[in-house]
Amino acid sequence: MMIPTIPTPDELLDKGFRRGKKAADLMRTQKIPKHLKGKKIEETRVVTSCQVIKDKLKSILDSVPEIEELPMFYQDYIDITVGVDDMKQALGALNWAYGIITQLEKEYGAKIRKNPSERATSFQKQAYGRLASVVNKIKKDLDFLDFAKANLRNMPTIDFDATTIVIAGFPNVGKSTLLKQLSGADPQVANYPFTTKGIQIGHVERHWKHIQIIDTPGLLDRPVLEMNDIELNAMVALEHLADTILFIFDASETCGFSLESQYNLLKQIEQVFSEIPIIYLFNKMDIVKDVEDQEYIKPYVDEFYDAIFISAIDGEGIEKISKKFDTIKKIERESEDDFY
After folding, report:
1. Are 281 and 179 in contact, with CB atoms under 8 Å apart?
2. ∠ CA 245-248-250 to the nearest 5 degrees?
3. Using DSSP, how many helices (H) and how many strands (E) does the chain show?
4. Burial class for 113, CB neighbours closer than 10 Å (0-12, 13-18, 19+)
5. For 261-283, b where at least 16 C-beta lie within 10 A, e where not — what string?
6. pLDDT tens sequence across 45-103
7. Residue 151 exposed, middle or buried by CB count within 10 Å (0-12, 13-18, 19+)
8. What's the pLDDT tens digit per position in 279-308?
């Protein structure tokens, strides 16, 4: 989200008053009848100051898209990161200030024009006092937008036209390694409010189809009952994107989690993403070697007749996964037009 640089109230007022003074000084050089000149100078000072401050407020308001018009993924992202209601409140306050300053501009411009010249400076000072009061009233809103700018700066860029695959599984099962193998390059890494390492996005083209692969380390890797509200909301956000989930079992259990624990996590993810197809992968088969000799694996292998056995680190089985990608169809959701 492209939020511009947010000024403090003092910076906003300083810019407005400085430009107002400059415009007033320019007016002093103009040939104007003496009885009108003082009024014209002060009217210019007030009107210019108001317009400069209004222009800055408008540039902020215009740069932030209507939140309701964003794809649901971004709406959830903003809500989790900074709070949609807080964002709306802050933008509403700037809109209120814009309207009040417009009124002040008209009110004091008219007062200066209609009254004797000797009262012009008094009205200009009144206008500046009220202008400063309005701007200072939105201090907390400007502070919030500055906070939002910093926290939304690295919001991941999602291609909503691409077929999207989300990788799930416990830590150290090989998610990042698999992502790199599938995408053929170091994936883009972007900060994500639900994770410590950040969301990773890889891209691949197959038969003129653009496929986007998303790995969220630290997110889809622990039981749902242990997740906090932010993590649960994050799962809902990703539900708006995924056309398929790649669930990775570490068949060797060297990740530190038993196959039973991994299976339990899978079942919970199936509940959360009930409408989304899942491709089941058994990774680290280079360590396991012979499945038939490993009794502890059999019950899980037998349940997933179409599971794919891979060694992500060696690149074994990657082509089988890629062929599966050819059969994935986009899930029709509400229009998710990119807001850029």
Report:
1. no
2. 170
3. 12, 7
4. middle
5. ebeebbebbeebbeebebbbbbb
6. 999 999 999 999 999 999 999 999 998 888 888 888 899 999 999 999 999 999 999 99
7. middle
8. 999 999 888 876 555 677 888 888 888 899
At position 138, the amino acid (one-letter code) is: I
DSSP E strand stretches across 219-332: 244-250, 278-283, 308-309
User: Measured between alpha carbons, how far is 273 from 236 in angstroms, rounded to an integer?
Assistant: 9
Distance CA 198, CA 215 (A): 9
Give the other-Cβ count within 10 Å of 77's Cβ. 26
For the chain, the first-to-last Cα distance in angstroms comes to: 9
Tokens for 83, please give them.
């709070």
Higher per-residue confidence, 180 vs 219: 180
Q: Are 236 and 247 in contact, with CB atoms under 8 Å apart?
A: no
Residue 230 · residue 192 · CB < 8 Å: no
**Residue % of the chain over a pLDDT of 90:** 50
Q: Which long-range contacts (CB under 8 A, 24 or more apart) does 333-339 make?
A: 333/72, 333/240, 334/72, 336/71, 336/72, 336/73, 336/160, 336/240, 337/71, 337/160, 338/71, 338/158, 338/159, 338/160, 338/161, 339/65, 339/69, 339/70, 339/71, 339/74
Instruction: Give the mean model confidence (pLDDT) for residues 176-180.
Output: 89
From the list 239, 233, 168, 242, the residue with the least C-alpha distance to 212 is 242
Residue type, 67: I
Contact 263, 229 (CB under 8 A): no
**pLDDT at 338 (0 to 100):** 43
* CA dist., res. 105 & res. 112, Å (int): 11
Contacting residues for 159 by C-beta, under 8 A, at least 6 apart? 203, 210, 212, 338
